[in-house]
Please model this.
Amino acid sequence: MMRPGRLAIVVPCYNEEEMLPITSEALRASLDDLQAKGKISSDSFVLFVDDGSKDKTWELIATEHEKYPEKIFGLKLAGNVGHQFALTAGLLTAKDCSDVTISIDADLQDDVHVFDDMMDKYHDGCDIVYGVRNSRKKDTFFKRTTAQGFYKVMSSMGVKTVYNHADFRLMSKRALQAFSEYPERNLFLRGIVPLIGFKTDSVYYERLERVAGESKYPLKKMLALAIEGITSFSVKPISFITGFGIMIVILSFLALIYVLVSYFFHIFGDTQPGWSSLMLSIWFIGGVQLISIGLIGQYIGKIYIEVKQRPRYHIETFLSSEKEKE
Model:
């Protein structure tokens, strides 16, 4: 027989004042629906995590909490730490006061109607359930192409990810406990969660349009997240540098033969003064070296961040029910 557990829906927010009231209403309705079906307990809640928003996001979260103190919780971070850290703060806070969590972005482009299927799979014994997009038909050609390229690159680098899955997922208390044992500062949750193991499954949905506000993940942030994911989970780029260096050395020897033959035997025509030195110019090699040093620097920078062991975030305020305050 299915035993209803306490569900926490974790929602990271950054400048979502236009979307937050809509999101709050939709998620409260989802809680009521799941409770009516006996899939969750009556003390389940939504946890909004304010990632240092500059607008009225926190004020709106506090207002929603006053209206629905048992249903809407709020977590205010002491500054803007980024989506991955904000989501982590919410998940680890919810871990101590829930049996299962579902993480979802505040824009509600991920379909809340698949909560039903997620909970069914949880009750069937799954510790992790991924929300996976059916397709990317609604994306622009550029975004669709770059996204597909990202997953292919990650796969070629040996990084285990779920295709077309972002951060819309269900995690049991046991899975969250395992996740809490990953203390790294260079966070890429889409790569970390598959490492946890346990029984997993997926649900599929059609991604919706944002109804209010603007996307908080422009191209610049998407590229940064991609670089973070690759350099946090694979050292293959450094291996590529070695292979590329060997290839350049071989090509340099071939170029040397070409230059010497041209210079001494004029097979390819007369050579101009300085042409030989230009053919063996340091510019190309210098550029390769700078790129290589920069890439290696990325890894050294990550080591630097990790060894300092600075806190990943600080919680300024936690609005919860009277039950948690006791």
